[in-house]
Amino acid sequence: MHKLFIVFLFLIPFVSFSQHTKRCGTYEYWEMMKQQDPSLAIGEERINREANEWMVAHRNERGQSSVITIPVVVHVLYHTDAENISDAQIQSQIDVLNQDFARLNQDTILTPFVWRTTAANTGLQFCLTSVTPDTAPSTGIERRYTSNESWSNFNEMKSFSTGGLDVWNRDRFMNIWVGNLDGGVLGLTQMPGGSPLTDGMCISYKAFGKIGDLDPQYNLGRSATHETGHWLGLYHIWGDDGGACSGTDYLNDTPNQADNTFNCPPFPQTDECSPAYPGIMFMNYMDYSDDACMNIFTNDQSSKMHAILNTTRVSILNNVASCNGSIAVSLPIKLFPNPVTDEILIHTYFNIPASIDFSLKDLYGREIMHKAKSLSSYEKVPFDVRHISSGVYVVSVTSNNYTITEKVIIAHR
Ligand code: ZN
Ligand code: CA
Fold first, then answer.
1. I want to staple 257 with a disulfide (CB 3.0 to 4.6 A). Which of 75, 88, 238, 356 is the partner?
2. Which residues are catalytic?
3. Cβ contacts of residue 385 below 8 Å, gap of 6+?
4. What is the 379 CA–ligand 2 centroid distance (Å)?
Protein backbone atom coordinates (compact mmCIF):
# COMPACT_ATOMS: atom_id res chain seq x y z
CA MET A 1 0.00 0.00 0.00
CA HIS A 2 2.64 2.51 1.03
CA LYS A 3 4.95 1.52 -1.76
CA LEU A 4 2.14 1.91 -4.26
CA PHE A 5 1.20 5.24 -2.78
CA ILE A 6 4.69 6.61 -3.16
CA VAL A 7 5.16 5.27 -6.64
CA PHE A 8 1.81 6.44 -7.89
CA LEU A 9 1.59 9.84 -6.40
CA PHE A 10 5.11 11.14 -6.46
CA LEU A 11 7.32 9.46 -8.97
CA ILE A 12 5.42 9.11 -12.15
CA PRO A 13 2.63 10.88 -13.56
CA PHE A 14 4.11 13.68 -15.55
CA VAL A 15 2.81 12.72 -18.94
CA SER A 16 3.85 15.41 -21.32
CA PHE A 17 1.52 16.27 -24.14
CA SER A 18 1.82 18.91 -26.80
CA GLN A 19 -0.38 21.94 -26.41
CA HIS A 20 -3.10 21.27 -28.98
CA THR A 21 -6.20 19.44 -27.85
CA LYS A 22 -5.57 15.83 -26.92
CA ARG A 23 -8.73 13.74 -26.98
CA CYS A 24 -7.55 11.20 -24.44
CA GLY A 25 -4.37 10.62 -22.46
CA THR A 26 -5.28 7.20 -21.10
CA TYR A 27 -2.84 5.17 -23.17
CA GLU A 28 0.20 7.33 -22.34
CA TYR A 29 -0.80 7.64 -18.68
CA TRP A 30 -1.35 3.91 -18.25
CA GLU A 31 1.85 2.99 -20.13
CA MET A 32 3.81 5.27 -17.83
CA MET A 33 2.26 3.72 -14.76
CA LYS A 34 3.11 0.24 -16.05
CA GLN A 35 6.70 1.27 -16.66
CA GLN A 36 6.96 2.45 -13.06
CA ASP A 37 5.23 -0.63 -11.65
CA PRO A 38 5.66 -3.72 -13.86
CA SER A 39 3.19 -5.66 -11.70
CA LEU A 40 0.44 -3.60 -13.33
CA ALA A 41 1.20 -5.10 -16.73
CA ILE A 42 1.05 -8.62 -15.28
CA GLY A 43 -2.19 -7.69 -13.55
CA GLU A 44 -3.59 -6.33 -16.79
CA GLU A 45 -2.96 -9.65 -18.54
CA ARG A 46 -4.72 -11.52 -15.75
CA ILE A 47 -7.63 -9.07 -15.77
CA ASN A 48 -8.11 -9.47 -19.53
CA ARG A 49 -7.80 -13.24 -19.28
CA GLU A 50 -10.46 -13.41 -16.57
CA ALA A 51 -12.67 -11.03 -18.53
CA ASN A 52 -12.32 -13.23 -21.61
CA GLU A 53 -13.24 -16.32 -19.61
CA TRP A 54 -16.33 -14.50 -18.37
CA MET A 55 -17.23 -13.43 -21.90
CA VAL A 56 -16.92 -16.99 -23.18
CA ALA A 57 -19.05 -18.32 -20.32
CA HIS A 58 -21.70 -15.63 -20.88
CA ARG A 59 -21.56 -15.52 -24.64
CA ASN A 60 -25.27 -15.00 -25.09
CA GLU A 61 -25.73 -12.38 -22.39
CA ARG A 62 -25.44 -8.80 -23.47
CA GLY A 63 -26.55 -7.22 -20.24
CA GLN A 64 -29.89 -5.89 -21.42
CA SER A 65 -31.84 -8.30 -19.25
CA SER A 66 -31.26 -6.30 -16.08
CA VAL A 67 -29.99 -2.78 -15.72
CA ILE A 68 -26.93 -2.14 -13.57
CA THR A 69 -26.63 1.38 -12.13
CA ILE A 70 -23.14 2.55 -11.19
CA PRO A 71 -22.81 5.17 -8.42
CA VAL A 72 -20.66 8.11 -9.47
CA VAL A 73 -18.92 10.86 -7.49
CA VAL A 74 -17.75 14.00 -9.27
CA HIS A 75 -14.86 15.91 -7.65
CA VAL A 76 -14.70 19.45 -9.05
CA LEU A 77 -11.34 21.24 -8.73
CA TYR A 78 -11.51 24.88 -9.77
CA HIS A 79 -9.17 27.83 -9.94
CA THR A 80 -11.44 30.15 -11.91
CA ASP A 81 -15.22 30.56 -11.70
CA ALA A 82 -15.55 29.02 -15.16
CA GLU A 83 -13.90 25.85 -13.89
CA ASN A 84 -16.39 25.63 -11.03
CA ILE A 85 -18.98 24.03 -13.31
CA SER A 86 -22.64 24.00 -12.32
CA ASP A 87 -24.58 21.12 -10.85
CA ALA A 88 -26.72 21.26 -14.00
CA GLN A 89 -23.66 20.78 -16.20
CA ILE A 90 -22.65 17.78 -14.12
CA GLN A 91 -26.13 16.30 -14.31
CA SER A 92 -26.09 16.81 -18.09
CA GLN A 93 -23.01 14.55 -18.19
CA ILE A 94 -24.75 11.83 -16.20
CA ASP A 95 -27.69 12.14 -18.61
CA VAL A 96 -25.36 11.69 -21.59
CA LEU A 97 -23.81 8.57 -20.05
CA ASN A 98 -27.27 7.14 -19.45
CA GLN A 99 -28.35 7.81 -23.02
CA ASP A 100 -25.14 6.57 -24.66
CA PHE A 101 -24.85 3.39 -22.61
CA ALA A 102 -28.54 2.56 -23.18
CA ARG A 103 -28.33 3.45 -26.87
CA LEU A 104 -30.99 6.06 -26.25
CA ASN A 105 -28.76 8.79 -27.70
CA GLN A 106 -30.56 10.87 -30.30
CA ASP A 107 -27.88 10.29 -32.92
CA THR A 108 -28.17 6.50 -33.23
CA ILE A 109 -29.60 7.31 -36.67
CA LEU A 110 -26.05 8.29 -37.67
CA THR A 111 -24.75 4.77 -37.03
CA PRO A 112 -24.24 3.22 -40.49
CA PHE A 113 -26.94 0.69 -41.28
CA VAL A 114 -24.36 -2.10 -41.61
CA TRP A 115 -23.50 -1.75 -37.90
CA ARG A 116 -26.96 -1.20 -36.41
CA THR A 117 -27.24 -4.80 -35.22
CA THR A 118 -23.71 -4.63 -33.80
CA ALA A 119 -24.69 -1.63 -31.68
CA ALA A 120 -25.35 -2.35 -28.03
CA ASN A 121 -27.65 -1.19 -25.34
CA THR A 122 -25.12 -2.03 -22.65
CA GLY A 123 -27.66 -2.18 -19.84
CA LEU A 124 -25.39 0.07 -17.78
CA GLN A 125 -26.65 3.25 -16.13
CA PHE A 126 -25.10 5.86 -13.85
CA CYS A 127 -26.26 8.01 -10.95
CA LEU A 128 -24.70 10.69 -8.78
CA THR A 129 -24.33 8.77 -5.53
CA SER A 130 -26.78 9.78 -2.83
CA VAL A 131 -24.45 8.79 0.01
CA THR A 132 -20.83 9.51 0.90
CA PRO A 133 -18.37 6.75 1.82
CA ASP A 134 -19.35 7.45 5.44
CA THR A 135 -23.03 6.93 4.57
CA ALA A 136 -23.93 10.61 5.00
CA PRO A 137 -26.38 12.06 2.47
CA SER A 138 -24.64 13.44 -0.60
CA THR A 139 -25.33 15.15 -3.90
CA GLY A 140 -22.55 13.04 -5.41
CA ILE A 141 -20.63 16.27 -6.11
CA GLU A 142 -17.83 17.82 -4.08
CA ARG A 143 -15.86 20.95 -4.87
CA ARG A 144 -12.55 22.50 -3.89
CA TYR A 145 -10.74 25.67 -4.84
CA THR A 146 -7.19 25.04 -6.03
CA SER A 147 -4.29 27.44 -6.37
CA ASN A 148 -3.17 25.34 -9.38
CA GLU A 149 -4.01 27.06 -12.64
CA SER A 150 -3.86 23.68 -14.32
CA TRP A 151 -2.92 20.08 -13.56
CA SER A 152 0.08 18.44 -15.20
CA ASN A 153 0.45 15.71 -12.59
CA PHE A 154 -2.98 14.16 -12.93
CA ASN A 155 -2.68 12.02 -9.82
CA GLU A 156 -2.27 15.16 -7.74
CA MET A 157 -5.92 15.87 -8.52
CA LYS A 158 -6.78 12.70 -6.61
CA SER A 159 -5.28 13.59 -3.25
CA PHE A 160 -6.28 16.30 -0.78
CA SER A 161 -2.68 16.64 0.36
CA THR A 162 -1.58 17.72 -3.12
CA GLY A 163 -4.39 20.23 -3.58
CA GLY A 164 -6.94 17.82 -5.01
CA LEU A 165 -9.76 15.77 -3.56
CA ASP A 166 -9.30 12.25 -2.23
CA VAL A 167 -10.73 9.27 -4.06
CA TRP A 168 -13.98 7.85 -2.70
CA ASN A 169 -13.69 4.11 -2.17
CA ARG A 170 -13.28 2.80 -5.71
CA ASP A 171 -14.87 -0.48 -4.70
CA ARG A 172 -18.11 1.46 -4.38
CA PHE A 173 -17.95 4.47 -6.68
CA MET A 174 -16.80 5.50 -10.11
CA ASN A 175 -14.65 8.57 -9.39
CA ILE A 176 -14.53 11.50 -11.82
CA TRP A 177 -12.27 14.50 -11.24
CA VAL A 178 -13.09 17.58 -13.29
CA GLY A 179 -10.58 20.40 -13.67
CA ASN A 180 -8.26 22.24 -16.00
CA LEU A 181 -6.03 19.51 -17.43
CA ASP A 182 -2.66 20.56 -18.79
CA GLY A 183 -1.57 19.93 -22.34
CA GLY A 184 -5.06 20.31 -23.83
CA VAL A 185 -5.99 16.86 -22.51
CA LEU A 186 -9.76 16.26 -22.48
CA GLY A 187 -9.68 13.11 -20.38
CA LEU A 188 -7.69 10.20 -19.07
CA THR A 189 -8.47 7.13 -17.02
CA GLN A 190 -6.75 4.63 -14.82
CA MET A 191 -7.50 1.24 -16.38
CA PRO A 192 -8.82 -1.60 -14.15
CA GLY A 193 -6.16 -3.02 -11.85
CA GLY A 194 -4.34 0.12 -10.76
CA SER A 195 -3.91 1.64 -7.32
CA PRO A 196 -7.10 2.14 -5.27
CA LEU A 197 -5.83 5.62 -4.39
CA THR A 198 -5.89 6.87 -7.97
CA ASP A 199 -8.75 4.86 -9.48
CA GLY A 200 -11.04 6.82 -11.75
CA MET A 201 -10.90 9.37 -14.54
CA CYS A 202 -9.91 13.01 -14.98
CA ILE A 203 -11.94 15.10 -17.42
CA SER A 204 -11.50 18.66 -18.62
CA TYR A 205 -14.14 21.16 -17.49
CA LYS A 206 -14.21 22.22 -21.17
CA ALA A 207 -15.47 18.79 -22.25
CA PHE A 208 -17.72 17.70 -19.40
CA GLY A 209 -21.45 17.45 -19.97
CA LYS A 210 -23.38 19.17 -22.73
CA ILE A 211 -24.20 22.56 -21.24
CA GLY A 212 -21.85 25.31 -20.09
CA ASP A 213 -18.71 26.77 -21.66
CA LEU A 214 -17.52 23.84 -23.75
CA ASP A 215 -15.06 23.17 -26.55
CA PRO A 216 -17.33 23.15 -29.65
CA GLN A 217 -15.79 19.94 -31.00
CA TYR A 218 -16.28 18.15 -27.70
CA ASN A 219 -19.52 19.58 -26.32
CA LEU A 220 -21.81 16.55 -26.18
CA GLY A 221 -20.35 14.74 -23.18
CA ARG A 222 -18.63 12.01 -25.17
CA SER A 223 -15.28 12.44 -23.41
CA ALA A 224 -16.78 10.89 -20.29
CA THR A 225 -18.52 8.20 -22.38
CA HIS A 226 -15.10 7.30 -23.87
CA GLU A 227 -13.29 7.44 -20.51
CA THR A 228 -15.97 5.33 -18.83
CA GLY A 229 -15.32 2.76 -21.54
CA HIS A 230 -11.67 2.72 -20.47
CA TRP A 231 -12.66 2.50 -16.79
CA LEU A 232 -14.60 -0.65 -17.68
CA GLY A 233 -11.66 -2.17 -19.53
CA LEU A 234 -12.12 -1.01 -23.13
CA TYR A 235 -9.11 -0.11 -25.25
CA HIS A 236 -8.90 2.28 -28.18
CA ILE A 237 -10.48 0.83 -31.27
CA TRP A 238 -7.29 1.22 -33.34
CA GLY A 239 -5.16 -0.76 -30.87
CA ASP A 240 -2.70 2.03 -29.90
CA ASP A 241 -0.08 0.74 -32.31
CA GLY A 242 0.93 4.02 -33.91
CA GLY A 243 -0.87 3.39 -37.19
CA ALA A 244 0.01 -0.28 -37.71
CA CYS A 245 -2.45 -3.15 -38.18
CA SER A 246 -0.87 -5.31 -35.47
CA GLY A 247 -2.54 -3.69 -32.44
CA THR A 248 -5.90 -4.77 -31.11
CA ASP A 249 -8.68 -3.82 -28.73
CA TYR A 250 -9.04 -7.59 -28.04
CA LEU A 251 -12.61 -7.64 -29.40
CA ASN A 252 -14.03 -9.35 -32.47
CA ASP A 253 -16.81 -7.08 -33.68
CA THR A 254 -14.75 -3.91 -34.02
CA PRO A 255 -12.91 -3.74 -37.38
CA ASN A 256 -9.12 -3.62 -37.34
CA GLN A 257 -8.10 0.00 -37.65
CA ALA A 258 -4.75 1.65 -38.34
CA ASP A 259 -4.87 4.87 -36.37
CA ASN A 260 -7.21 7.18 -34.52
CA THR A 261 -9.76 9.30 -36.37
CA PHE A 262 -10.13 13.03 -35.90
CA ASN A 263 -12.88 15.45 -36.85
CA CYS A 264 -15.92 14.08 -38.62
CA PRO A 265 -15.27 12.12 -41.82
CA PRO A 266 -18.10 10.79 -44.01
CA PHE A 267 -18.95 7.07 -44.02
CA PRO A 268 -17.39 4.83 -45.27
CA GLN A 269 -13.72 5.26 -44.41
CA THR A 270 -11.27 2.52 -45.29
CA ASP A 271 -7.61 2.16 -44.36
CA GLU A 272 -4.80 -0.36 -44.84
CA CYS A 273 -6.17 -2.53 -41.99
CA SER A 274 -9.78 -2.51 -43.22
CA PRO A 275 -9.41 -1.78 -46.94
CA ALA A 276 -12.88 -2.96 -48.00
CA TYR A 277 -16.37 -1.68 -47.26
CA PRO A 278 -17.59 -0.93 -44.58
CA GLY A 279 -14.06 -0.04 -43.47
CA ILE A 280 -13.29 1.35 -40.05
CA MET A 281 -15.80 2.09 -37.28
CA PHE A 282 -14.70 5.69 -36.74
CA MET A 283 -18.02 6.56 -35.07
CA ASN A 284 -17.24 4.21 -32.18
CA TYR A 285 -17.04 5.87 -28.77
CA MET A 286 -13.53 4.43 -28.37
CA ASP A 287 -12.18 6.35 -31.37
CA TYR A 288 -11.26 10.08 -31.35
CA SER A 289 -13.90 11.53 -33.68
CA ASP A 290 -15.78 14.68 -32.71
CA ASP A 291 -18.51 14.31 -30.10
CA ALA A 292 -21.17 14.87 -32.77
CA CYS A 293 -19.74 11.99 -34.83
CA MET A 294 -19.52 9.15 -32.32
CA ASN A 295 -22.58 7.10 -31.48
CA ILE A 296 -21.88 3.39 -30.91
CA PHE A 297 -20.62 0.81 -28.45
CA THR A 298 -20.60 -2.67 -29.97
CA ASN A 299 -21.97 -5.88 -28.46
CA ASP A 300 -18.46 -7.12 -27.72
CA GLN A 301 -17.56 -3.84 -26.05
CA SER A 302 -20.68 -4.17 -23.92
CA SER A 303 -19.77 -7.74 -23.11
CA LYS A 304 -16.22 -6.75 -22.10
CA MET A 305 -17.54 -4.03 -19.79
CA HIS A 306 -19.90 -6.52 -18.14
CA ALA A 307 -17.01 -8.95 -17.82
CA ILE A 308 -14.96 -6.34 -15.94
CA LEU A 309 -17.97 -5.55 -13.75
CA ASN A 310 -18.31 -9.23 -12.92
CA THR A 311 -14.63 -9.76 -12.15
CA THR A 312 -12.15 -6.98 -11.32
CA ARG A 313 -14.82 -4.40 -10.52
CA VAL A 314 -17.38 -6.78 -9.03
CA SER A 315 -17.60 -4.73 -5.83
CA ILE A 316 -19.38 -2.04 -7.83
CA LEU A 317 -22.14 -4.55 -8.58
CA ASN A 318 -22.52 -5.00 -4.84
CA ASN A 319 -23.04 -1.28 -4.28
CA VAL A 320 -25.76 -0.20 -6.68
CA ALA A 321 -27.84 0.77 -3.62
CA SER A 322 -25.83 3.98 -3.30
CA CYS A 323 -27.97 5.23 -6.16
CA ASN A 324 -31.10 5.18 -4.03
CA GLY A 325 -29.89 6.48 -0.72
CA SER A 326 -28.87 3.31 1.04
CA ILE A 327 -25.44 1.93 1.54
CA ALA A 328 -24.78 -1.60 0.43
CA VAL A 329 -21.97 -4.04 0.81
CA SER A 330 -18.99 -3.40 -1.36
CA LEU A 331 -16.52 -6.20 -1.33
CA PRO A 332 -14.56 -7.23 -4.39
CA ILE A 333 -15.70 -10.78 -3.86
CA LYS A 334 -17.70 -13.34 -5.79
CA LEU A 335 -18.92 -16.78 -4.80
CA PHE A 336 -18.74 -19.71 -7.24
CA PRO A 337 -20.45 -21.88 -8.16
CA ASN A 338 -24.06 -21.97 -7.06
CA PRO A 339 -25.38 -24.65 -6.71
CA VAL A 340 -22.17 -26.11 -5.33
CA THR A 341 -21.14 -29.75 -5.12
CA ASP A 342 -17.75 -30.03 -3.39
CA GLU A 343 -16.30 -26.65 -2.63
CA ILE A 344 -17.37 -23.04 -2.57
CA LEU A 345 -14.85 -20.91 -4.36
CA ILE A 346 -14.49 -17.36 -3.08
CA HIS A 347 -13.05 -15.34 -5.90
CA THR A 348 -11.41 -12.20 -4.49
CA TYR A 349 -10.25 -9.11 -6.34
CA PHE A 350 -8.52 -7.17 -3.59
CA ASN A 351 -5.28 -5.80 -4.92
CA ILE A 352 -3.92 -5.14 -1.46
CA PRO A 353 -3.51 -7.58 1.43
CA ALA A 354 -6.83 -8.31 3.13
CA SER A 355 -8.52 -10.87 5.30
CA ILE A 356 -11.90 -12.51 4.96
CA ASP A 357 -14.16 -14.23 7.40
CA PHE A 358 -16.23 -17.05 5.96
CA SER A 359 -19.37 -18.26 7.67
CA LEU A 360 -21.91 -20.84 6.56
CA LYS A 361 -25.24 -21.07 8.34
CA ASP A 362 -28.36 -23.13 7.85
CA LEU A 363 -31.71 -21.50 7.28
CA TYR A 364 -32.34 -21.44 11.05
CA GLY A 365 -29.27 -19.24 11.52
CA ARG A 366 -27.14 -21.99 13.09
CA GLU A 367 -23.50 -21.69 12.13
CA ILE A 368 -22.26 -24.88 10.47
CA MET A 369 -18.83 -23.68 9.42
CA HIS A 370 -16.61 -20.70 10.16
CA LYS A 371 -13.16 -19.95 8.82
CA ALA A 372 -10.88 -16.93 8.56
CA LYS A 373 -8.29 -16.46 5.86
CA SER A 374 -5.61 -13.89 5.11
CA LEU A 375 -5.07 -12.94 1.50
CA SER A 376 -2.03 -11.41 -0.10
CA SER A 377 -4.02 -10.09 -3.04
CA TYR A 378 -6.04 -11.66 -5.87
CA GLU A 379 -6.86 -15.19 -4.82
CA LYS A 380 -9.40 -17.90 -5.35
CA VAL A 381 -10.09 -19.33 -1.91
CA PRO A 382 -11.78 -22.75 -1.73
CA PHE A 383 -13.99 -23.80 1.17
CA ASP A 384 -14.62 -27.53 1.28
CA VAL A 385 -18.30 -28.37 1.85
CA ARG A 386 -18.20 -32.08 1.06
CA HIS A 387 -18.91 -32.89 4.71
CA ILE A 388 -22.04 -30.74 4.78
CA SER A 389 -25.31 -32.32 3.79
CA SER A 390 -27.18 -31.19 0.72
CA GLY A 391 -29.56 -28.30 1.23
CA VAL A 392 -29.94 -24.54 1.22
CA TYR A 393 -27.51 -22.47 3.30
CA VAL A 394 -26.58 -18.86 3.85
CA VAL A 395 -22.96 -17.93 3.24
CA SER A 396 -21.56 -14.71 4.65
CA VAL A 397 -18.16 -13.29 3.79
CA THR A 398 -16.95 -10.39 5.89
CA SER A 399 -13.98 -8.10 5.33
CA ASN A 400 -13.25 -4.54 6.50
CA ASN A 401 -16.58 -4.46 8.34
CA TYR A 402 -18.53 -5.21 5.17
CA THR A 403 -20.47 -8.41 4.77
CA ILE A 404 -21.74 -10.10 1.66
CA THR A 405 -24.50 -12.62 2.22
CA GLU A 406 -25.68 -15.09 -0.35
CA LYS A 407 -27.98 -18.08 -0.36
CA VAL A 408 -26.07 -21.13 -1.56
CA ILE A 409 -27.45 -24.51 -2.55
CA ILE A 410 -25.26 -27.46 -1.71
CA ALA A 411 -26.17 -30.37 -3.97
CA HIS A 412 -23.85 -33.33 -3.71
CA ARG A 413 -23.65 -35.59 -6.71
ZN1 ZN B 1 -9.01 6.96 -24.69
CA1 CA C 1 -3.92 -0.14 -35.42
1. 238
2. 227
3. 340, 342, 343, 344, 360, 369, 410
4. 34
In a domain, 322, yes or no: no
pTM: 0.84
Q: Which ligand is nearest to the CA of 247?
A: 2
Number of structural domains in the chain: 2
Ligand 2 centroid to Cα of residue 260, in Å, is: 8
Tell me how far apart the alpha carbons of residues 391 and 23 are, in angstroms, rounded to a whole number: 55
Task: Decide if 113 is inside a domain.
Answer: yes
Q: Which residues of 45-77 are buried (b: 16+ CB within 10 A; e: fewer)?
A: eebbebbeebbeeeeebbbeeeebbbbbbbbbb
Q: Do 212 and 349 fall within a single domain?
A: no
Q: Do you find a cis peptide bond into 38, omega within 30 degrees of 0?
A: no
Cα 189 to ligand 2 centre (Å): 20
Q: What is the pLDDT of residues 378-409, one digit of tens each?
A: 778 889 999 999 999 999 888 877 777 888 99
Among the bound ligands, name the one nearest to the CA of residue 26.
1
Q: Of 32-46, 253-267, 367-381, which range is least confident?
A: 367-381
Residue 259 has pLDDT above 80, yes or no: yes
Q: Which ligand is nearest to the CA of 242?
A: 2
- C-alpha of residue 355 to centroid of ligand 1, in Å: 35
* Same domain for 195 and 79: yes
Both 113 and 166 in one domain: the answer is yes
